Amino acid sequence: MGDIVDTAVAAGSFKTLVAAVQAAGLVETLKGTGPFTVFAPDDEAFARLPQGAVDDLLKNLPQLKAVLKYHVITGKLTVDEIGQMKSAKTVQGQEVRIDNHWWHLHMNPKINDANITSKDIVTDNGMIHVLNRVLMPNMELTCPVCGMGFMKTDALNYHTEMGHAAEKAQELTPPVEVIPAVEMPAAAEVTGGLFEIICDVAGNYRFHLKAANGQIIAVSQSYGTREAAIKGIASIKKNAPIANIADFTTVGGTMPELRHETGIVQDPVFEVQSSTVDRFRFHLKAANGQIIAVSQSYLTRQSAEKGIASVKKNAPTAKVVDHTTM
Hints:
- The protein is elongated.
- The chain is built from twelve helices and 16 strands.
- The model is unreliable at 169-174 and 251-265 (pLDDT under 50).
- A hairpin with a 2-residue loop joins strand 13 (269-276) and strand 14.
- Helix 2 (15-24) crosses helix 6 (61-69).
- The chain has helices spanning 4-11, 15-24, 27-30, 43-47, 53-59, 61-69, 79-82, 101-104, 153-161, 165-169, 226-239, 301-314, and strands at residues 36-41, 72-74, 87-89, 95-99, 110-111, 114-123, 126-131, 178-180, 194-199, 205-210, 216-219, 244-247, 269-276, 279-285, 291-294, 319-322.
- By secondary structure, the chain is α+β, with helices and mostly antiparallel strands.
- 29% of the residues lie in helices and 25% in strands.
- It has two domains: 4-145, FAS1 domain, CATH 2.30.180; 160-322, PH-domain like, CATH 2.30.29.
- The strands form three sheets. The protein has a seven-stranded mixed sheet. A five-stranded mixed sheet has the order 8-16-9-10-11, with helices on one face.
């Protein structure tokens, strides 16, 4: 058994898809550990596109990436599992519709308007389901620079304003480099964000995230091991830039996304809450629903907004310093 790419190459009926994956630089991603579920249009599906459409895609790298990533969802899902869903979040960022009416009639569910012609092709790092049509994301809600897709215009605008941080966060993430505190440069030489790993009074591991000005903007839960704390930092680095924002307060504000729309595949999300009229906090939930960071208390909702923006900006590139090895 091979990975997704090797399986597609060996099948011989995905020549156009494989060529497009190679042109978009996504081979390494689809050879990764995943797992991924790929809705794979065969050569006949690409042939159904208007004349010149494939050539146009190959000349437009962001659009090509958008189309290809729109065919991939995370997880290793069989058709029976997909048939119980109404929609699924793709790696590109937008959702595909799942018509499970067909599944209840003992037929394969439809993905948008495409039929699954061959199902449950198992690979080392995921699952392939063959489609008879090419799926197309909503290009009006797709970033023309990096190809990331969004469900709402405000989210796309926010992504653009943040310098395409969401696309950067979805690239293959290298292992977190941890610097022993004794090797850390002097404070005057430190620029950018900083994660600091510490031991609490109970002997457990925690970390906090500092902004470039030294202010603590988020703190973690307690971890039993140093390695678990490092994984928590990696999760924040990955999830913070792409997280939606859900407002659970009753005070007006200017956040671009005010309601978190729960779906089959959950997005990472910053949840803003207020325990009293004049106190606001937020926490960051990963895609699995686990809270991985919480904020300080803010006097105004606008200050909480700025705190979220600071986490989104500082977390991805923040250095990690370990104070537990001194």
